[in-house]
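RETRY 2/3 - previous attempt timed out on the joint model. Re-submitting the same 1228-residue input unchanged.
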Amino acid sequence: MNLEAILDGVRADVSGHIGEGKVADYIPALAKVDPSKFGMAIVTVDGDAFTIGDAAEPFSIQSVSKVFTLTLALGRVGEGLWKRVGREPSGTPFNSIVQLEQEHGIPRNPFINAGAIVVADTLLSGHEPRETLGEVLSFMRHISGDEGIVIDREVARSEQQTGFRNAALANYMFSFSNIHNPVEKTLGVYFHQCALSLSCIQLAKAGLFLANNGKLGGSNHSVVSAERARRINALMLTCGHYDASGDFAFRVGLPGKSGVGGGILAIAPGRAAIAVWSPGLNANGNSATGTRALESLARRTGWSIFG
Amino acid sequence: MNLEAILDGVRADVSGHIGEGKVADYIPALAKVDPSKFGMAIVTVDGDAFTIGDAAEPFSIQSVSKVFTLTLALGRVGEGLWKRVGREPSGTPFNSIVQLEQEHGIPRNPFINAGAIVVADTLLSGHEPRETLGEVLSFMRHISGDEGIVIDREVARSEQQTGFRNAALANYMFSFSNIHNPVEKTLGVYFHQCALSLSCIQLAKAGLFLANNGKLGGSNHSVVSAERARRINALMLTCGHYDASGDFAFRVGLPGKSGVGGGILAIAPGRAAIAVWSPGLNANGNSATGTRALESLARRTGWSIFG
Amino acid sequence: MNLEAILDGVRADVSGHIGEGKVADYIPALAKVDPSKFGMAIVTVDGDAFTIGDAAEPFSIQSVSKVFTLTLALGRVGEGLWKRVGREPSGTPFNSIVQLEQEHGIPRNPFINAGAIVVADTLLSGHEPRETLGEVLSFMRHISGDEGIVIDREVARSEQQTGFRNAALANYMFSFSNIHNPVEKTLGVYFHQCALSLSCIQLAKAGLFLANNGKLGGSNHSVVSAERARRINALMLTCGHYDASGDFAFRVGLPGKSGVGGGILAIAPGRAAIAVWSPGLNANGNSATGTRALESLARRTGWSIFG
Amino acid sequence: MNLEAILDGVRADVSGHIGEGKVADYIPALAKVDPSKFGMAIVTVDGDAFTIGDAAEPFSIQSVSKVFTLTLALGRVGEGLWKRVGREPSGTPFNSIVQLEQEHGIPRNPFINAGAIVVADTLLSGHEPRETLGEVLSFMRHISGDEGIVIDREVARSEQQTGFRNAALANYMFSFSNIHNPVEKTLGVYFHQCALSLSCIQLAKAGLFLANNGKLGGSNHSVVSAERARRINALMLTCGHYDASGDFAFRVGLPGKSGVGGGILAIAPGRAAIAVWSPGLNANGNSATGTRALESLARRTGWSIFG
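RETRY 2/3 succeeded.
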């Protein structure tokens, strides 16, 4: 399969749609991103990498980070994590608090904000946020094989100053004893993980283990077991795009996780990890052109997991 | 792959769990089913069939029928169907009416009751229920290659006499103009499709086109396009098990659709269709031992779509 | 107190607002009502009557009828009624089905549609709708002292043909065993009671027992005990205006019950019953100018029950 | 009317029920209160006071304080307050966050927690919590004519340490721009106002202006206008007992406001203010025996506002 040619085809398919959607503007650092950016990277399980556009330019991965903190937390506490967070699609927006009230402080899944805050709380477990964030950063650098990955402190600070709804979620779950550390510390970890800054090529490399039976690309080193990789992929498929997860599965047919920075990580099991970046968001808060590009890629490659 | 040996392994895995769960008892015809029944059938895209247990005994497929009426309706009205029914997991029980109020009479997906009632309404479109049901029956016989498939009239009659919650859903959607035929007629179609009676082997054959790029087994005859087959599979994955769809994807990793009769149809794209039957249901209304058997099968075959 | 002069003052207060609001248009019989109609009647516990405007013209009292069927049902089954219907404001629109799902088929109060349908079901209790409606009509004629009160058959027929949301509510409650008669019969009673046609003067006379310690005006004949009259007044105050009950209490300060025909019955305990009619409805489905007129009347008379 | 004899009758009516219900135990300071306490005080508009039991012993008035901060806030910002908080019963528990999400951060009424936090925010308006609390305390001392009223600092500190659900509500409303001061400061005011400590006799005196057309007892000094007093009474009637407001109106028939400390303030317009205290709470979080005592009092005096 000529992935270079396929990427050219994808570019042709989306060229009339670059800049569509609405850039997230709730913090200045995100609002000022150039809406015409577009990048895509494919890293295959054989270790080959293919890119188009702005694939080497770092962007704020935001909620895509939830995939990696979930992986870390499962490594730390194992399947016991599922006592504190569910595995079902939510049927509600990413920051809804209604479901928490009806289900007594247990978030529906680890990819909505409330669930990711619980995951961050798990990682913290009595340590200082600085230590936990150091661990997250080491993990990202390790799995991507790139020591250059950083957290954007300006973004993190802005998140912290405007994150009152996330503070509401955290305090609310604390009242149900489902946050175990001081709320400010748990939120500190959460806001900083969202501020991780990666390029498409770094992000695809970081996610490759999910396409590669849990192993690092070009090695036999296991990040997680093959079964756990499958399960994380299943969660991405059912819950990775908030209340548009069904639509993404229908149109693209690959496990994926989006972020409000306009990035999406998608996994073609046994084949490749794909990262795409285009800042404009659709009505559900997912990258408009990024989704379109993945739809084109899935059609051109036949990589859909559904046949 | 020795599917015969694998089925023996599955049987061994579940043997201590036959009879677990609670048999649906809202109508006498379902309540009197022997809870110790267990059958499983695999039909591969090459046309081979493998069975264990009570795989030849017909049972009430109930909501599994929603997969087939959806297929028919898409053939009839095409993608325009999605104006009247969504494609997102619901986050609520199968017969919830709350979501309908919040979303103005548009059901979340075609696999919850409200959505399947809209699909039935689409099929009816001005005809008499008898004609539409004749068409459904012809379709089932055609895709399974089995003229012996019937509708259990006793079950249908019982459903009709006790289906007040479904009547509520239908009247409610009618008030939003999302049911176009007289409510009784649409419900007549719906209650009868749920009463379709198939054995595991018939059900696996009927579902095979979804594993086979939309084509009938052992032929080049297309039931639907390959793309449509993928999309129906995607819907089964995200929405096929009501509010336990995420859990089924996590544990089994195959598109599937369950019914309260204890049957589940699962699809391994490019490989096989699998049907399992065990009447006892878990708390979410899905076959307890059937789910367990599919989990075992997916592990033993490595057929998970997630890696 | 010169009630004649006060009514003139009220008329002056509302004169610039006649015709405001939106006439209910879900059935033709209501849609064709002249929006410029305005009438008001006060009947005191001493038996004096005062009117302005179109106070002698019959209109469809719709949900105001719920006060009278509740009175009849309490007479029939006593306080046991409260096992099947609550006494709390709903916090939702008049025809919401959400609350019913959360509270297992028990409507919040007898003045939302679901609650009034349960009340109608109580009255029916095995009889034919025709008999029950005869009883309702006799009761209305008895308490108003006016044999001319009738049910508008055209309105009732229209309601029946368009009442799919009410049919949804009834079927839904039936599925929770909170409707005991065949759904069509219970709905038949409900749709016909809503089609009762009374003038302001007839309506004020019919409601007078609630202002008069449960007794008919100018007599010692008790319709209900003084305690029951107080309790019905309390329910009207907290639940009589759907999701605007708080606002009506705040602005008017009298127990009241509205209907989509534009009528409102208000009670000044120990003093008088007041009926007002103006077809245009506000956003909450209550008569816009009728509410304004009662606000003016309460201010001018000092009849607020709150001081 | 011999109120002394009536209070003796009330005492007889409730004597077998002293100690019923469950004492609030979410903070130690409340949990350690003796459940067998019972006190009641009536202060008439003529200035006479009648008491039974522990009517002179201070207790934590908790949410009863919401009546007084609302009064202060209306004095400060006038009817503009209603842009930030509604006037409708909520149909949900006192600390529900669901309604806030559906209604975009506008609490349903000033007597649920979220509403009272907005009211506290209004009072704060840029000042330091200490100053605002000084003002609240002055107001309480002024209207009760008792300089001995204090805030229980231990209770306030406990509230602050355990108030994560209230912190969730405040952060959530902040995210909708309906809290204008730093969340900690607004919560500081709220937690301290809840810790106001008054005896029944002090509380009845403080509330007397609501029974007295807005005027202080035995004087012509207006705390609020007669119209505002009526409106606050209306709010107490429809919203003063959380999701049991309808039941309280039905059984007692007086405007009232309860607190989890077991106190209730009730108003008999034109007649008297009544305070009752009994720490055991019913399922809705209102004083069990306190409600019973008020029911007895209303029956014995005939003070119901409903006839």
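Chain A has a mean pLDDT of 95. Closing ticket.
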